Amino acid sequence: MEIRNITIIAHVDHGKTTLVDGLLSQAGAMGGKEVSERMMDSMDLEKERGITIKAKNASIEYKGTKINIIDTPGHADFGGEVERVLSMADTSLLLVDALDGPMPQTRFVLDKSLRLGHKPILVINKIDREFADPHRVHDQAFDLFDDLHATAEQHDFPVVYCSAKQGYASLDAEKAGKEDNDFIPILDLILSHVPPADVDETGPFQFQVMNLDYDDYMGRLSIGRIFRGTVSKNQTVTILHLDGTKENFKISKIFGFQAMNRVEVESAVAGDIVALAGAENINIGETIVQEGNSDNREPITVDEPTVSMYFMINDSPFSGKEGTFVTTRQLRDRLKKELLTNVALRVEEDPQRQDRFKVSGRGDLHLSVLVETLRREGFELQVSRPEVIMKEENGQKLEPFEIVIIDLPEEYSGTVINELNRRKGTMQTMETSIHGTTRIEYHVPTRGMIGFRSFLISESRGSAAINSRFLEYNEYAGPIPGRINGALISMENGVTVPFALFNIQERGVLFVDSGFPVYAGMVLGECARENDLEVNPCKEKKLTNMRASGSDEAVKIVPPRKLSLEQSLEFIDEDELVEVTPKSLRIRKKILNPVDRKRAAKK
């Protein structure tokens, strides 16, 4: 059976996972079972956020050909997933929204695909959207290929128009949805355009590990592609470790992929994507070869991290009340386990503090997803404000910059532009559509993007959409002012009461409601002024025997602003931490005691 290996490239929310659902259903891969919405987004976080975080693969059979489909993350923060799985594919489906066109993350992944020699197929999705303009998007995609220095063969890409949600595709934009009511045109195009896997089935076995999984009964599973030869169950093979050492092991089980399921097989041939069981001491990027062979594949390279945060155990007055895992040892072991599969992550132990770890990743979203994952597993921890990782070359200080594209109503553009300029951004383009939406593109230091998303949501009343990706390391842009407003800080331990909050809300915006447990040094909200303000949220109303006009009026409290994990990380300043537990998110000052904090300020 011939094999085709394809990967799907798309920006966040352009319909990539929905298209995979449709292809699985079209090819009858589910055996008559109902295909649930966004099946490839198997993690709870993926379903909640509508993004793909972990790369996954499925397979279908169509006209006697096996098609392996690899679903890649669309956000640049999860580029560590993208870079290793692209090498498993022979070509890519470039999925682009018929209204938005190519976006920053699309460019990021497509560039890596073109460098591998892929000849992509352009899929213009959501052509049923209002104001969709597939012909304009086609031209934009051609310009994108040109910007990325694609070859003449790569420029000659086929185009298919579809609506993944409605379930139809066509090679003709004018006929899409009128004549075709299925995804057959996409499947036929894959067979005609994607070449069979160019491999040597008779040579010595060679396999590269692209992903890792774990099974309670079989242990670690090595997922990757067979680049040469064949492999059988119970065969003894050799691992070529990245440090140059070798290790033999016996393959206990081989799993192929059928639809979304793993199916045990006795053997597998070159070109196929499989999972091998039996090797415990193995890492992503390492090569497995025939016993006695030493033909190593080129190691997988991953872009360096650009943002770091400090992770530490929770030592606040509320520590240990809500979490299951609260010790440094448990946090250290969990971070080491994460390093086995999260290749873009770096973890360093702080030599000055035994209970603190410096965790570096590709962006604040990359790190916040890790924090949220730990939280749901029962960990209690504290994290610091994200900081960018600086470099120094030839005596010059360099910092990471990002390409930022913002779509927002025209009336908010002036305020947003002023804020980006304040954060040392440089405008590249600005366009206003006939629909009253303005699109601005900026180059901004990554430092300037910390806290900006919260500002944008607040300023645009939630009507703006922002996308960004790493651009390059460039010359240090100079100091950027931090958070403008101070914080409202509790000076007492206890539970918040309506009477106290009613008086405090005049001083700023509250993050907590009445009946909320607090401690001294905990941040209750954002102050209306630049300085921090200590308040007593537990102060009860004094009771007397005298009645006065207005004394019995109801206390009206403005609903608090509930911060998500990402918003909390963007809000905090350098002297603050986010306390993360399975049930709560709190912001606190590093020095809890108000007296100690005043002494530190004098020093």
Tell me the layout of helices and strands:
Blueprint: E1 2-10, H1 16-26, H2 44-49, E2 56-62, E3 65-71, H3 79-85, E4 91-97, H4 104-115, E5 121-125, H5 134-147, H6 152-155, E6 159-163, E7 168-170, H7 184-193, E8 206-215, E9 219-228, E10 230-232, E11 236-240, E12 246-250, E13 253-258, E14 261-265, E15 267-269, E16 273-277, E17 287-290, E18 307-313, H8 328-339, E19 346-349, E20 356-361, H9 364-376, E21 381-383, E22 387-388, E23 391-393, E24 396-409, H10 413-422, E25 426-432, E26 437-445, H11 446-449, H12 452-459, E27 465-475, E28 487-490, E29 494-495, H13 498-504, E30 508-510, E31 517-518, E32 522-527, E33 533-535, H14 565-571, E34 576-580, E35 585-589, H15 594-602
Parallel strand pairs: 1-3, 1-4, 4-5, 5-6, 28-33
Antiparallel strand pairs: 2-3, 6-7, 8-9, 8-17, 9-16, 10-15, 11-12, 11-17, 13-14, 13-16, 18-20, 18-21, 18-22, 19-20, 21-34, 23-24, 24-26, 24-27, 25-26, 28-32, 29-31, 30-32, 32-35, 34-35
Structure description:
It is a single chain. The chain is α+β, with helices and mostly antiparallel strands and 603 residues long. The chain has 5 domains: 2-193, Rossmann fold (3-Layer(aba) Sandwich); 206-290, Translation factors (Elongation Factor Tu (Ef-tu), domain 3), CATH 2.40.30.10; 307-388, Elongation Factor G (Translational Gtpase), domain 3 (Alpha-Beta Plaits, 2-Layer Sandwich), CATH 3.30.70; 391-475, 2-Layer Sandwich (Alpha-Beta Plaits), CATH 3.30.70.240; 487-602, bipa protein (OB fold (Dihydrolipoamide Acetyltransferase, E2P)), CATH 2.40.50.250. The chain is 22% helix and 32% strand. Strands 18, 19, 20, 21, 22, 28, 30, 32, 33, 34 and 35 form an 11-stranded mixed β-sheet that branches. A hairpin with a 5-residue loop joins strand 11 and strand 12 (246-250). The longest helix has 14 residues, at 134-147. The N and C termini lie far apart (74 Å). Mean pLDDT is 82; it is low at 29-43 and 599-603.
